[in-house]
Structures are given as C-alpha cells and as structure tokens.
DNA sequence: ACTCTGACGAACC
DNA sequence: TGGTTCGCCAGAG
C-alpha cells in the first residue's frame, strides 16, 4: 500500500467529508480522475473498516441518496444511526435532503493534491 | 490463467 | 418507465 494507491486516495477524500454532509461513489471516482470506476470506490468502502485514521464510510451514498451500503455496517441500521447522529434525516433508506447535503469533492478539494 | 462477483452509474434498448 | 448491458478493476475460488 502506498500513498498513491487508489484505495488510499479514496480514503483520503472520504475523510474530508464534513460531518452532516454526504457524497457519492461516483463523485469520488470522478474527482480522482476515474469517472467510470464508481464500483471501485464501493469496493474501497467495503475494505475501509478498521482503517486508521477512521474512514467515515457512512457519509458515502449512491447518486440518489440511498444508503445502499448499510448492509456492510454489521448490524443493519448502523449506517443510518451514524448519519442521524450527525443530523442527517433519513426516510426509507434514503436522504430526503440529499441534494442540499451533497458535498462534491470537485468543489472543495484540489485534485492535484490527491 | 480464467471466471465471477460486486457499497456504482451511465448508456441502451 | 423500466429492465439489461457494459465499463471499471481488485480479490476470491
């Protein structure tokens, strides 16, 4: 594992997502210059458990604001609980305010630094 | 070496 | 409107 590994780059982006905000697998992939690799971002999240520093994977949802990765948080409901503890409202595994809470890496981070 | 499977998303029917 | 295909590519069998 080196600093430039795709997974490491993904983790570094995810760690920058502010509490109470969310982004998408595709947005991260596009930010890293690999727009068609959203699946790899998902795979990276799957392997993010136990990483240090902590990787707030619960702040990454799919492009429609659905908590598609909730099954991977151990007890079903953990992902939702983490988000709600940050003030993110959820209904039926979806974030109604998704469009307002969406945090785009391309808008706040410099790709050259990743 | 080869096939299959995805925490995705866009393009096609 | 909705199901299927396809690009992507790292692991597992």
Written as H for each helix and E for each strand, in order along the chain, the element string is HEHHEHHH
Radius of gyration: 13 Å
- Which strands sit side by side, in order, in the main sheet? 1-2
CATH topology: Arc Repressor Mutant, subunit A
What is the CA-CA span between the terminal residues?
Answer: 15 Å
Query: Briefly, what CATH class?
Result: Mainly Alpha
The overall strand count is 2
Quick check: average pLDDT?
93
Please give the domain count.
1
Per DSSP, the total helix count is 6
The best one-word shape is globular
Category by helix and strand content? mainly alpha
Question: How large is the share of residues in beta strands?
Answer: under 5%
CATH architecture: Orthogonal Bundle
Q: Level of helix content?
A: 25-40%
Give the CATH H-level superfamily.
Winged helix-like DNA-binding domain superfamily/Winged helix DNA-binding domain
Low-pLDDT stretches: none
